[in-house]
Description:
GO molecular function, one term: nucleotide binding
Protein name: DUF86 domain-containing protein
Distance between the termini: 30 Å
Keywords: Hydrolase, Nuclease, Nucleotide-binding, Phosphoprotein, Toxin-antitoxin system
InterPro entries: HepT-like, HepT_RNase_toxin
Low-confidence stretches: none
Number of helices: 5
Organism: Bellilinea caldifistulae
Order of helices and strands: HHHHH
Structural class: mainly alpha
Largest sheet: none
Amino acid sequence: MKSIHTLLRDMIRAIETIQSYQVVSYENFLEDSKTQDAILYNLIVLGEAANKIPEQFQESHPEIPWSSMIGTRNIIVHGYDQVKLPIV
Length: 88
């Protein structure tokens, strides 16, 4: 089992990777499946790591949108046909 520190580091790396794609224009994002895949993958990593953070830690940090991150991951993984790229 990964430590909280490692999970948080995984989350930060995923966020930084997602942020690095902000230089891509909205139109390019919608046309570039590789960029879409990279962002969706990192959203999955983010949500998966968030889901493994102990509940006690999550409760002590209510400013972090834990359920949104985990929910987004679940939609991408289990409801992939419901993913709306313009919203991503």
